[in-house]
Amino acid sequence: MRKPTAEFSDKDLRSAQATASALLEHLMNELATGKGIHLESILSALGALAGRACQVAALEGFARQELGYAGLSLATVTGTDGSEYYFGDAINRPLTERPYSVWDLVAAEAARLGATLPDMAELFQHNAAMVGQPSYGVPRWAPETFGEAPQTYLPLWDRYLPLIRKSAPKTQLWPVVCGIAVQQLFQKLVGQFDLGVQTRVVMDCAIAMAKLKAQPGA
Predict the structure, then answer these.
(1) How confident is the model over 76-91, as pLDDT tens digits?
(2) What are 187-194's contacts with CB under 8 Å, separation 24+?
(3) 140: buried, middle or exposed (CB in 10 Å: 19+, 13-18, 0-12)?
């Protein structure tokens, strides 16, 4: 784990690390089947949780004008399908634009383990092109693989939030927990799968679920 920042102390980061381990363990146990764990499922689930964590953190940080959110933009866009989406610097901040953002954590670990990273700008361009489409949020899987869209796993957020909040009570820390959980998963996958592709899958899901406005009960 890197050095603390003005936003996150050593204690915060230690809490995030421990909480991420517990989250990943619970998630892997829940998604396990008689054939083991379906990789695409856990990647999509972690991406969905990371995206929802970013949305919650961004909306709270923006509303309260917390450290790092003052002066940032936030807009709601309605797609042709009637769904609403968030755009702006505030949503992007915990997702990609601060130290310990989801992208910062996921990309750093994938690169450390030898992966070739996807282009972050292209990830956002792809997401914007999908807005309002029936296939919104479906990540770009590795060839000949498939999985559920991240929306399928959004109900897990309410189920796991008490676990996350217990050890990491700060809302701004929740995306960090999810990003570290992805790091820990990548450490289990190294040498078996293309972590560059897995980074793309996680970020496709995280960006989509950060921007799709949460619906009651979802």
Answers:
(1) 999 999 999 999 999 9
(2) 187/109, 187/113, 189/39, 190/113, 190/114, 193/39, 193/142, 194/115, 194/142
(3) exposed
